[in-house]
Amino acid sequence: MVAALKESLLDESKRDVLLPDVLALIDAEVSDKKGASGLAVKAGYGAVKKVGPSYIEKAVEQLWPEFVDQLDPFWQSYNAAPSGTFSEYLIANSDQASNALLSVTDSRIEDTDKNVVKKFYGSLRGSAQKNVAEALPRLGALVTKYAG
């Protein structure tokens, strides 16, 4: 059995290089959004960043361990019979992977006292699964980079 993702993705010695990569992944995904829904994502993301310059970074730091926990079953399953890349595996299981990751933010959003964050999340939650699914190739590559 392959090591749990938390062994590598939550390793403190990797934090200073991993966190900027996660933030760059988020920035790239937002930047790539097109059309009216893309404008809404970009506007909402900009509004959340205005809450505080480090708000996104702090949110990632807090949520990352839970995301890693949600990704681990996919990592274990992929490594039990690897075929292709982990990104391809996530894409093939995009509904389940997206829902697993969204379960983290869904359960946490109620705890925030930042109304702009709640409003942004609420306005985009309907399209969130599609947006998360679109991020899976980059996320899979990032996981492989640090855990593979």
Description:
It is built from seven helices and no strands. Helix 4 runs antiparallel to helix 6 (94-109) and helix 6 crosses helix 7 (115-147). With 148 residues, it is an all-alpha fold. It has helices at 5-9, 15-32, 35-51, 55-80, 86-92, 94-109, 115-147. It is globular and about 45 Å long.
Summarize the structure.
It is built from seven helices and no strands.
Counting helices, strands and paired strands, the structural category is: mainly alpha
- Helix percent band: over 70%
How would you name the oligomeric state of the polypeptide chains in this document?
single chain
Mean pLDDT: 92
How many strands, what sense, and barrel or not for the largest sheet?
none
What's the Cα radius of gyration? Answer: 15 Å
Shape: globular
Q: Spans with pLDDT under 50 lasting ≥5 residues?
A: none
Number of strands: 0
Summarize the helix and strand pattern as letters: HHHHHHH
Tally of alpha and pi helices = 7
Strand coverage percent: under 5%
- Termini Cα gap: 13 Å
